[in-house]
Amino acid sequence: MRIAFAGTPEFARQALDALIGAGHGVVCVLTQPDRPSGRGMKLMPSPVKQAAQAAGIPVLQPRSLRLDGRYPEDAEAARTALRDLVPDVMVVAAYGLILPQWVLDLPRHGCLNIHASLLPRWRGAAPIQRAIEAGDAASGVTIMQMDAGLDTGAMLHRVERPLAPDETGASLHDGLAADGARAIVDVLARLAAGDAPVPVPQPEAGVCYAGKLLKSESALDFSRPAVELARRVRAFDPFPGTTMALPGFDQPVKVWGARALPAAAGAAGGDAPAPGAILGMGPEGIDVATADGVLRVTALQKPGGRRQPVAEFMRSYRG
Hints:
The chain folds into two domains: 209 residues, Rossmann fold (3-Layer(aba) Sandwich); 101 residues, Formyl transferase, C-terminal domain (Methionyl-tRNA Fmet Formyltransferase, Chain A, domain 2), CATH 3.10.25.10. It contains eight helices and 17 strands. Helix 1 packs parallel to helix 2. The chain is elongated. The protein starts with a strand and ends with a helix. Keywords: Protein biosynthesis, Transferase. This is Methionyl-tRNA formyltransferase. It holds the Pfam family Formyl_trans_C. Belongs to the Fmt family.
C-alpha cells in the first residue's frame, strides 16, 4: 500500500518507524515546520522529519492545509504533491494541524488516526495527561477513521493499557506510542489483505474533552485535595511540570515527585492547618497541607538546577 504519513513529535515517530520496518511504502511525510529550540533557538526538525530524512522519504511542511486560510499557497502545494503521489491511505499521529475535508477525501481509504485514548473518552489535545490527572484506571490507543469532527470518527481498533499507581505522563506516553505503532501496523496489514476492521461508531455516552496543557496549570493549588495534586504532578511530568513556592526562593521550584498522605500524617491535633502550610521537612519529603490530606513532595528542582530527590535537595536547602 502507498501510505502518506502525517505526524510531528516522538509519539508519531515511533509509528512511522514501525511502518517503515514493516515494509509499507511510505510515499511522503507531512510534519510541522522546523521550530526554534534550545538556548540558541536554532531551528530544529521534528522527530518525524528526522526519521523520514533518514529513510529517504520526501517531506512536506506546510504551515496550513486550509485552502482558504492564511497560507493558501502552502495548502495548494501540499494538495498537488499528494494528488501526484496517489496515496492509498494517510496515517495521522499527533500531527498538529487540522485536516480539511480535501485531505480526508484524497486517499482511497481515507485517513486513519492513532489517538492516545480509549475513545470516546478524552478526545482532544492532551489525552495522556488528562487520563492520569483524572485518576483513570486505564488508558489506551484507538485507531480511528477520521472525519471532520474532533476525534469523532468511527473506531477500527482499540488497545487498552492499565495505568500503574506511579504512572507519569512520560511513562504513559512511551507505552502508548509503542502500542499505537503496533496497532497501526496490524490495521494496515488487514486493510492490505482485504480484511479491513469493521468501523464502530463512537457511543454518545462517556465523551470527555482533553484540553490543551497550559503552563498556567503548573502552579499547585493546595486548596485542592492531596490525591488530586499528586496525580497532577505525575500527569504533568515532563511537560508542563508543576511548581510550588518555597521559603528561600524568589521563584517557584519545580515539583517532580509527590504522594498523598492522610491528614494525620502531617499534623497532630489542633485546628486544621491552612492549605499550603508546610508541616514538616526531612529526607523523606516536604509535607504540605492541602484541602484534604497532606501532599508529601519527594523530588524537586531549584530554578536553574536539576531534578533532585528531596533528601539531596534538603542537604543544600537554606529556607
